[in-house]
Amino acid sequence: MSEHSDAVTEGGIENMDPDKKRIYELKAEVIAAAAHPIRLAIIDFLRDGEQCVCDIATYADAQRSNVSRHLGVMLNAGIVSCRKDGLKMMYSLKTPCVLAFMECVTDVLRERARDAAAVLEGI
Questions:
Q1: Nearest 5°: CA angle at 63, between 43 and 47?
Q2: Which fold has domain 36-95?
Q3: Per residue in 92-113, pLDDT tens?
Q4: ∠49-64-38 over CA atoms, to 5°?
Q5: 3-state DSSP call for residue 123?
Q6: Rounded to an integer, what distance in angstroms lies between the CA atom of residue 32 and that of residue 100?
Q7: What is the pTM of this model?
Q8: DSSP secondary structure code for residue 29 in this structure
Q9: How open is the CA angle 35-37-41, to the nearest 5 degrees?
């Protein structure tokens, strides 16, 4: 039996080492906090630096209240940080390395497109 076989059960990761399981759960929380089209757009928009909610809402083509809710999710997950500037709330990427993950996702999509193109060429 491999060291990873205890994690492969029909129901999930119940038999996994508790510390390892908790790390996976925490990672899943961060990924879930980014896993929405508006949140991905926000992350992309913040790549160039700090922005106010009003500009983020315009970029994401969404209502400010909706954008604020999404920012709150990402703030709680540690993806973004915020500060008050007068009456404006300014947001920035707390962990810019999230952009590398976004690039990785783009690479996955490119690979999927290449695979699909190869299948189509074969018919």
A1: 15
A2: Arc Repressor Mutant, subunit A (1.10.10)
A3: 999 999 999 999 999 999 999 9
A4: 65
A5: coil
A6: 16
A7: 0.81
A8: H
A9: 105
